[in-house]
Amino acid sequence: MPGTRASSMQGQARRKALGDFLRTARSRVQPETLGLPPGVRRRTPGLRREEVAQLAGISVTWYTWIEQGRDVSVSPSVWARLASVLSLARAERHYLFELAECADPEHSKDSVTPLPARLADCVHSITTPAYILDRCWNVLARNQALLHLFEGWPDRVASPNLLRYIFLDPAARELVVDWDQRASRVVAEFRADAGVHADEPDVRAVLDELRQGSPVFSHWWTRHTVVDREGGLREFRHTAAGVLRYQQFTFRLATRPDCKLVMLLESDAS
User: Fold this and answer.
1) Which of 42, 60, 130, 182 lies 20 to 30 Å (CA to CA) from residue 170?
2) Residues 207 and 174 in one domain
């Protein structure tokens, strides 16, 4: 079937990219930085495959297959050990786990890293409603325009989370036009965001709370629908200003790939 063949080709391309990336990363590591003798007969720079495999606690054959792009099953803990052995930077580590299509077991440690102060200042400088969400949809930064649009939220709660607001705060049903339609899509968007992280403690805690507290969220979560958090028209029924229409744009942050900046630009749609 065409779809199956295309999927197979994409998988092969992904595994090849993963193998190429590992070889490049391996060539950059100086043996002496890991306590290994530099050696005089090294034909290529960096670590040998045998050394990477030994340091990561896996067989040479298995590691060779990974670099060759073969279809082998690798656990998240092994990918984490390889990332450590190869001294991958944050962006490189994120890229590795994206290619491997699995969750980074160390990712939850990164999620508590506060945003750089200047990044929050950037959000405050935006004139239209804007905010930053992490992978659990906790609000890490927001500007005054967003605060005005949401009529005091998120500042009126201790730990603002967009999902809790939409599904557990009655004010959301009054503010969001076509709440039922938006709610179903929000669940599908969050499933796409959570993805392979759904069993990690921080994501699981949010999921458990929402499934217990909101029958609507629980219903749509069991449907297993997945969509991207794409742009589009967003309408709000503001108490003082009436119906407000915006076009939504979402951007991933280079410094925090687990976070995204969401901006709402005024729309002329009628």
Assistant:
1) 130
2) yes
The 10s digit of each residue's pLDDT in 58-77 is 999 999 999 999 988 899 99
Could you tell me the pTM of the whole model?
Answer: 0.66
The token duo for 125 is 């400088």
CB count in 10 Å sphere of residue 135: 23
What is the secondary structure of 177-242 as a DSSP string? TTHHHHHHHHHHHHHHHHGGGTTSHHHHHHHHHHHHH-HHHHHHHTTT-------EEEEEEETTTE
| pLDDT for residue 86 is more than 50 | yes
Token digits of residue 38: 């530099």
**Average of per-residue pLDDT across 100-111:** 70
Q: Who has greater pLDDT, 48 or 270?
A: 48
> What CA–CA distance (Å, rounded) separates 122 from 133?
14
Structure tokens given for 86? 């190869």
Residue 5's pLDDT is 63
What is the span of the domain harbouring residue 202?
111-266
Residues 215 and 117 reside in one and the same domain: yes
- Opening angle at CA 8, ends 97 and 104, nearest 5: 10
